[in-house]
Amino acid sequence: MKYVIAIIQPDRLDDVLERLTQKEIHLVTVSNVMGRGRQKGIAEVYRSHKEAGSLLRKVKLEIAVNDAYVQPTIEAITAGARTGQIGDGKIFILDLKECIRLRTGETDGVAIG
Fold it and tell me: What gap in Å lies between CA 52 and CA 89, rounded to an integer?
């Protein structure tokens, strides 16, 4: 089991979610976050609005997947989020030690779905 965390541009979220759905990956947690990367928070134009300051708006996706779904998850996020511009984001893959479904008590891969 793996825990996939992706930080992407907000305007790419719908495309990423659509591509994840096409790969039959439905369990996703999405958060609005702020951060900066190599661009060091340099002001940029986002949907005709200039973002100023040292932190830029991003979206964080968190996805727990069984091992067979790791590569399809990475492919879907990459295809949906990549624009070729600085600030496209990052994907982090962590080992997931345990998962428990609260409703049923199921554990590990079964609990992920």
Answer: 18
Q: Whole-structure pTM over 0.85, yes or no?
A: yes
Domain of 33 in residue numbering reads as 2-112
Q: Are 17 and 77 in contact (CB under 8 A)?
A: no
Q: How far is Cα 68 from Cα 66, in angstroms, rounded to an integer? A: 6
In 3D space, the residue among 76, 18, 12, 86 whose CA is nearest the CA of residue 47 turns out to be 12
Number of structural domains found in the chain: 1
Amino acid at 18: E
Rounded distance between C-alpha atoms, residue 93 and residue 2, angstroms: 6
Determine how many CB atoms are found less than 10 A away from the CB of residue 31. 10
- Tracing tokens 């992706």 back to the chain, one arrives at 6
pLDDT digit string (tens) for 53-70?
678 899 999 999 999 999
CATH number at residue 81: 3.30.70.120
